[in-house]
Design goal:
Layout (H helix, E strand, L loop, with lengths): L12 H17 L2 H8 L4 H12 L18 H14 L6 H14 L2 H13 L4 E5 L13 E3 L2 E10 L6 E5 L5 E5 L5 E6 L8 E10 L1 E2 L5 H34 L3 E2 L2 E2 L4 H26 L5 H29 L11 H13 L4 H11 L4
Parallel strand pairs: 1-4
Antiparallel strand pairs: 2-3, 3-7, 4-5, 5-8, 6-7, 9-10
Helix pairs in contact: 1-4, 4-7, 4-8, 5-6, 5-7, 7-8, 7-9, 7-10, 8-9, 9-10, 9-11
């Protein structure tokens, strides 16, 4: 019943090779002990993994080739996110590698766009993204105010901000601008989150200088948020696949009362329930990736549904996979909780499943 993620004929050979090569690197670099060290406070490992990700081209995935990137699309970004989630990689991705380049492409023009895209592709600019829309799922939203080129206010629970060089702030009116991390008037307080591999940051601005990327563009803001949601959904898919694979492997080797537990009908049903719920999620994520360049309304609605559904399924898989392991699944010995916590983190950040469904309903004028 074990299935390797991504090995299906719906992807091109190049896309499969891209995901498989990334998986191999991550498996070698991220044994459970390495994840455990980072979760216990080894912050240097985060920088090492970021540098490795830049070498692999992850920072330039969505950057056009003329600006030093690989010029790929959201489907490839989703495949990368799935591999990162499968490995529980403590690497910032959704913000600096997905939402930030999308925002620069949609908002900025001319040399401003070219400059920041080059910086993103090389990894020199590691940009966290902040939304002030209530539907983004970040607390303290709506408290940011801009007067000219000065930004004031606060926002909490920002992901991918630890180690960031800049903070891209998308205001509720659709404007977007960059604040240099650590500049005068910008105070960042990092704290541990439910997912020990990805801390959160509370930001406070006191007349901090902001460089506007362009005019107000609510459609662009919606697209950037949709891209982030899709990346988190793909990450959850990868994490859930890992937990499923571990549960199937354990059921095939663990003996109880003289029998392999996988031979018991009840355990078979548990594994069957997981795989039948999980596999359609992959098609949803791929559809979401392919839909990112379409109509703005469809992009937002699709990403809401993908994140909501994958979040629910991944949570179910995490619970059942842990139960298949029995008591040992609740200990730190196997480290299953790193993937379970990752799934729980992804479910809440940039909008919970309930919030995403509500936004999809409102976008379609059903609520």
């Amino acid at each position: 019943m074990t299935m390797e993620m991504g090995l299906t004929h719906e992807l091109t050979q190049e896309q499969m090779m891209f995901q498989e090569s990334l998986q191999r690197v991550l498996r070698k670099s991220l044994p459970v002990d390495a994840i455990r060290r980072f979760a216990d406070g080894d912050a240097t490992f985060n920088q090492t993994l970021w540098d490795q990700g830049v070498e692999l081209g992850l920072s330039g995935l969505l950057v056009p080739e003329e600006h030093g990137g690989t010029g790929l699309g959201m489907l490839e970004a989703a495949l990368a996110a799935e591999a990162l989630g499968n490995a529980a990689a403590p690497m910032p991705f959704a913000g600096p590698c997905v939402m930030a380049p999308q925002a620069v492409r949609l908002y900025a023009q001319g040399e401003t766009q070219a400059h920041w895209l080059r910086q993103i592709a090389t990894g020199d600019a590691r940009i966290a993204v902040v939304f002030t829309s209530r539907l983004s799922g970040q607390t303290g939203n709506g408290l940011l105010e801009a007067q000219g080129e000065r930004l004031s206010g606060g926002v909490a629970s920002v992901m991918d901000c630890a180690g960031a060089t800049h903070i891209l702030t998308v205001l509720g009116d659709g404007r977007a601008g960059l604040v240099e991390a650590g500049t005068e008037g910008c105070i960042a307080t990092s704290r541990r989150s439910l997912d020990r591999t990805r801390p959160l940051t509370d930001l406070r601005f006191d007349k901090a200088r902001i460089q506007w990327l362009g005019n107000a563009n609510p459609e662009a803001a919606g697209r950037v948020l949709a891209a982030g949601r899709l990346a988190l959904a793909a990450d959850s898919l990868g994490a859930a696949q890992n937990m499923f694979d571990k549960a199937v492997a354990y059921a095939g080797e663990r003996e109880q009362f003289g029998r392999i537990i996988g031979s018991y009908q009840g355990v078979k049903y548990m594994c069957a329930d997981m795989v039948t719920a999980l596999e359609p999620c992959r098609a949803m994520v791929w559809h979401g990736g392919n839909a990112q360049e379409g109509d703005a309304l469809d992009v937002q609605v699709t990403s809401c549904h993908v994140k909501a559904h994958v979040s629910d399924v991944a949570r179910m898989v995490a619970r059942v996979a842990t139960e298949v392991h029995g008591g040992i699944g609740f200990t730190d010995l196997l480290g299953l909780h790193y993937w379970l916590r990752r799934i729980s983190f992804n479910r809440q950040v940039l909008g919970s499943a309930e919030m995403c469904r509500l936004q999809a309903a409102r976008l379609q004028e059903f609520a």
